[in-house]
């Protein structure tokens, strides 16, 4: 008796295999076209209703806004705060905004609205001093000195050790005493927490970032570079590659990678709601472009 499968079974298996490949190819293609489609988001019904009713009043300043007030960092009257998601983050975030950055066009505000306890926004040059905390703070910025997210803890530990050596580098103190103190401090530093406590983002066009990045208050900080990803931002900067992310995208992708690379936990959508406003506006504009609805595009802009 032959152990070879019948020809028609072979053909069926080949056809099934091809079907799976085609399905996978189509899924990949759709995901590439709409990378925000698989997010685990809270219901956006409140935004749908707000979009239909149009601009509403800010309860703080009285300004007419769509969805939220970009000067007061609060939702407007027709977007009740209890119907918005609140996101818990694993660390604090400081956003430094360029003074020429248009408030109404910034996505940084989304982070402040959705994670208010964890996010602060500062307008340059009024920014905090970070020098004393350089072993627990990092700046997201690409460059030759930047490190990957998975290497953050290692580099923070090195900073702690360097700070110990600098502290004990006193020429007036006897060498033996200096050496003993340094050894003791280095041993103590090994047990010191090397967890990143705060991450800083610059909110500006890429042409404006240099002024903020070169500020001496940021120069000594550890620089972190994000993995390459493509932006979905509808206000993409002309002449720049599509890997230049909007601020809320940069924050979101940083946290996703931090969760898996540093916290060593499986990512299950914990920070997806940071894109609550962004994904809704993206879809609105995408639909408006397809239908030629200029009014909707004007409303969002």
Can you put this structure into words, describing what you see?
With 301 residues, the chain is an alpha/beta fold. It has two domains: 38-83, no CATH class; 86-163 and 193-294, no CATH class. The protein contains ten helices and nine strands. Helix 4 (152-167) packs antiparallel against helix 5 (175-190) and helix 9 (276-291) runs antiparallel to helix 10. The model is unreliable at 17-32 and 185-191 (pLDDT under 50). This is tRNA-uridine aminocarboxypropyltransferase 1. GO terms for molecular function: tRNA-uridine aminocarboxypropyltransferase activity. It catalyses: a uridine in tRNA + S-adenosyl-L-methionine = a 3-[(3S)-3-amino-3-carboxypropyl]uridine in tRNA + S-methyl-5'-thioadenosine + H(+).
| Mean pLDDT across all amino acids | 82
The rounded Rg comes to 25 Å
Give the percentage of residues in beta strands.
Answer: 5-15%
The counted number of beta strands is 9
List keywords for this structure.
301 residues; alpha/beta; 2 domains; two-stranded antiparallel sheet; 10 helices; 9 strands; 11% strand; globular
Protein topology:
Blueprint: H1 7-33, H2 45-53, E1 56-57, E2 64-65, E3 68-69, E4 74-75, E5 92-97, H3 108-114, E6 119-123, E7 137-140, H4 152-167, H5 175-190, E8 198-203, H6 209-213, H7 216-219, E9 222-224, H8 247-261, H9 276-291, H10 294-300
Parallel strand pairs: 5-6, 5-8, 7-8, 7-9
Antiparallel strand pairs: 1-2, 3-4
What's a concise summary of this model?
The chain has 301 residues and is of the alpha/beta class. It contains ten helices and nine strands. The longest helix is centred in the N-terminal third of the chain and has 27 residues, at 7-33.
């Amino acid at each position: 008796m032959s152990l070879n499968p019948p020809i028609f079974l072979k053909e069926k298996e080949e056809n099934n295999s091809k079907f799976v490949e085609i399905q996978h190819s189509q899924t990949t293609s759709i995901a590439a076209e709409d990378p925000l489609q698989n997010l685990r988001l809270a219901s956006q019904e409140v935004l749908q209703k707000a979009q239909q009713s149009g601009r509403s009043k800010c309860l703080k300043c009285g300004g007419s806004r769509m969805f939220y007030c970009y000067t007061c960092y609060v939702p407007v009257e027709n977007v009740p705060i209890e119907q918005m998601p609140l996101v818990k983050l694993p660390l604090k975030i400081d956003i430094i905004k360029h003074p020429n950055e248009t408030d109404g066009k910034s996505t940084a505000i989304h982070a402040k609205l959705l994670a208010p306890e964890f996010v602060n926004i500062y307008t340059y040059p009024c920014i905090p001093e970070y020098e004393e905390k350089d072993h627990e703070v990092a700046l997201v910025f690409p460059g030759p000195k930047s490190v990957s997210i998975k290497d953050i803890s290692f580099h923070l530990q090195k900073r702690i050790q360097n700070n110990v050596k600098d502290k004990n580098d006193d020429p007036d103190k006897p060498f033996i005493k200096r050496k003993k103190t340094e050894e003791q401090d280095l041993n103590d530093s090994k047990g010191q927490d090397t967890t990143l406590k705060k991450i800083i983002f610059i909110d500006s066009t890429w042409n404006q970032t240099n002024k903020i990045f070169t500020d001496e208050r940021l120069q000594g900080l550890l620089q972190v570079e994000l993995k390459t990803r493509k932006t979905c931002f509808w206000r993409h900067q002309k002449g720049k590659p599509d890997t230049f992310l909007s601020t809320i995208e940069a924050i979101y992708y940083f946290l996703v990678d931090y969760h898996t690379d540093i916290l060593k936990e499986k990512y299950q959508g914990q920070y997806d709601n940071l894109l609550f406003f962004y994904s809704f506006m993206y879809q609105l504009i995408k639909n408006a472009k397809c239908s030629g609805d200029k009014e909707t595009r004007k409303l969002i802009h």
